[in-house]
């Protein structure tokens, strides 16, 4: 008996604050003008994507105390952009990255609930945390939250937000036949939360949305991060784009979800991926290498290594060897505002030296080889096959697709790859649901049983 193939979930992201965006390309558009966001969202909806994803940077990045020009900098407010996109799309989910460390649960829950109502049930919150003093100066007296407390605060923030979203039942607004008005039940919106990070009580102002509550997204690699995501998230961003490590991460997160009392199907695993298409595999590979070489300049390579070494490496030749000195983790951070994803500086530095020696690569070539996001490269048919094979082999439940070329790059994927995924029967030809939860195949949370 045949088994139905898994449906591929697709998210779209618009590149912004990093060197992967080809801002130097003659056809590149703006990262902050609304036309770019609108074009990407409309293109994603034309391709029957599930959602549009917006990352966020809360501080301008610095090198040795000075703003540096390696990245595109600046990003409009997330809620403003997503609310605007709700008006020019009908089905596409709208996912925003909002920091749980620096935002209070009442205002955060209210903003997402408002977006969910305005969009007809299409909002999603990508929950992120922060503990660095550099970013925290914009928000907190004293600047930072101890590393050990970041998930404590995030868990309480999510718990409090859910309490607020669930403070309304779907039948809390009733029609009054005599007056013709809609009335609120007396206790609708009442809430009280008392924790180590937040102690709040009052009445929530936004009724329950068509999808019950916004979808929660999360990323987690550490054991603590994985447990948090498995217990709370509806979807998690995977850092793995190759089998079998992606399949092991997939298995681990699904098992943690079951251990948290959830169905494994209620947690979707989604790595990000870029793509390069060509008339042949060789043509696509040639295009990719050309793009990569332009993205990773000598200066960019040194900046990326400085974040690991935490030293000034400007005296090193990008066309020379990888530095033979050790990192200095105890020195003040030379790079500020970039997420640090390397758990062990010394181990990472050693690995880069070994790769450089084994492959006979220069410093810049080593960075280009090791820091790439793992783009999907080939003809349109090959890319469609690779995506389908990856998902069917439980490397993920789908991908969040972006392009180096903003905002036009996604058009190529939608025009060439999407029809082939549809022909394979793994991507919808039309939207069948009305909310983001419908499209992702997630259950709608039941109305809470509230003691009032």
From TrEMBL:
Entry keyword set: Flavoprotein, FMN, Monooxygenase, Oxidoreductase
Recorded GO MF terms: monooxygenase activity
Q: What EC number is given for this enzyme? A: 1.14.-.-
Protein name in UniProt:
NtaA/DmoA family FMN-dependent monooxygenase
SUPFAM superfamilies linked: Bacterial luciferase-like
| The keyword Protein biosynthesis appears for this protein | no
Pfam families tied to this protein:
Bac_luciferase
Q: Which InterPro entries match?
A: Diverse_substr_monoxygenases (IPR051260), Luciferase-like_dom (IPR011251), Luciferase-like_sf (IPR036661), NTA_MOA (IPR016215)
Q: Which family does it belong to?
A: Belongs to the NtaA/SnaA/DszA monooxygenase family.
The broad enzyme category this protein falls into is oxidoreductase
Keyword Flavoprotein in record: yes
Residues in domain Luciferase-like?
Answer: 30-392
Q: Which PANTHER family match?
A: ALKANESULFONATE MONOOXYGENASE-RELATED (PTHR30011), C2H2 FINGER DOMAIN TRANSCRIPTION FACTOR (EUROFUNG)-RELATED (PTHR30011:SF16)
């Amino acid at each position: 008996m045949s088994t139905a193939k898994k449906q591929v979930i697709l998210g779209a992201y618009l590149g912004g604050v990093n060197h992967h965006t080809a801002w130097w390309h003659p056809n590149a558009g703006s990262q902050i003008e609304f036309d770019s966001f609108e074009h990407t969202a409309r293109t994603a909806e034309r391709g029957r994507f599930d959602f549009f994803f917006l990352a966020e940077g809360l501080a301008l990045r610095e090198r040795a105390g000075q703003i540096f020009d390696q990245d595109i900098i600046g990003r409009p407010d997330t809620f403003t952009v997503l609310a605007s996109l709700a008006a020019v799309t009908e089905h596409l989910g709208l996912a925003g990255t909002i920091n749980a460390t620096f935002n209070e649960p009442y205002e955060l829950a209210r903003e997402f609930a408002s977006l969910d109502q305005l969009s007809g049930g299409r909002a999603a919150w990508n929950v992120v945390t922060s503990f660095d003093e550099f970013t925290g100066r914009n928000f907190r007296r004293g600047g930072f939250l101890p590393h050990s407390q970041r998930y404590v605060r995030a868990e309480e923030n999510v718990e409090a937000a859910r309490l607020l979203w669930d403070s309304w039942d779907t039948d809390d607004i009733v029609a009054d036949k005599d007056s013709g008005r809609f009335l609120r039940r007396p206790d609708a919106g009442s809430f009280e939360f008392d924790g180590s990070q937040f102690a709040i009580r009052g009445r929530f102002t936004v009724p329950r949305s068509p999808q019950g509550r916004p979808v929660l997204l999360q990323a987690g690699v550490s054991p603590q991060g994985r447990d948090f995501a498995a217990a709370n998230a509806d979807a998690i961003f995977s850092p793995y784009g190759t089998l079998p490590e992606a399949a092991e991460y997939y298995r681990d997160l699904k098992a943690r979800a079951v251990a948290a009392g959830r169905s494994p199907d209620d947690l979707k695993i989604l790595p990000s991926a870029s793509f390069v298409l060509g008339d042949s595999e060789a043509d696509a590979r040639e295009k990719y290498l050309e793009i990569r070489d332009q993205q990773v300049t000598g200066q960019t390579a040194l900046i990326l290594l400085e974040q690991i070494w935490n030293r000034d490496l400007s005296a090193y030749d990008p066309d020379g060897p990888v530095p033979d000195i050790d990192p200095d983790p105890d020195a003040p951070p030379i790079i500020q505002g970039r997420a640090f994803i390397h758990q062990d500086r010394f181990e990472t530095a050693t690995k880069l030296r070994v790769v450089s020696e084994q492959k006979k690569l220069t410093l810049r070539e080593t960075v280009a080889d090791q820091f790439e996001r793992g783009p999907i490269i080939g003809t349109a048919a090959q890319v469609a096959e690779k995506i389908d094979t990856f998902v069917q082999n439980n490397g993920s439940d789908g991908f969040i697709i972006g392009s180096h070329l903003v905002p036009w790059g996604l058009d190529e994927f939608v025009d060439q790859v999407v029809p082939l995924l549809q022909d394979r029967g793994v991507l919808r030809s039309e939207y069948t649901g009305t909310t983001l939860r419908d499209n992702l195949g997630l259950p709608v949370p039941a109305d809470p049983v509230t003691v009032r």
